[in-house]
Amino acid sequence: MNPPAIAIDGPAASGKSTVAKLIAKELGYTFINTGAMYRAVTWYTLQQGINPADTEAVKALLPTIPLSFGKDGSVSTVLFEGRVLTSELTEKSTNDNVSAIASIPEVRALLVAKQREYNTKEAVVMEGRDIGTVVFPDTPFKYFVTASEEVRAARRAAEGITDSIAERDKKDSQRACAPLKQAEDAMLVDTSDMTIEQVVAFIVADINKKLA
Description:
The chain is of the alpha/beta class. 48% of the residues lie in helices and 17% in strands. The protein contains nine helices and eight strands. The radius of gyration is 16 Å and the shape is globular. The two termini are 17 Å apart.
């Protein structure tokens, strides 16, 4: 039986990455940023001059992508030829095209396998858009973290990202493969009027109650 897997899903700028990272630190688990994996594939695709909308070209590229996945302390990392990717993952071109890459079933299959592999070795806190519905559908620890569109847009702007939250939500929710969706048995956590500390405390308390 695998160690615990905590699934934190939610739309862009809901606070799920920060929350997941702090929960992992509090529990001593490993934080897995699945978005970074999709962003790394997007960045590499663009580096090769391939249009992310060209699904067949992206699929042909997958077996040769020189990406690996590791850890820095308790946080997962994505490496390109041994170098940890950082600012590359938040470039505007990466951000503008990640939804297209993430909608390709073969990309998702590759990365979901990598994500599950982490959990065969250790307890994880994983955030994304389909963790509770696709990656770990059987985990009892599922949380859907969200906030109002206005609050999320403000958070996004504070990060220097100016894409449309409504447009991003539409892309992520309407894609054919593993769309953004709250799992039926996930606990809804609206962070609009909560501090990060309150959200973390709320979720950790629920996890500990389920573990007891």
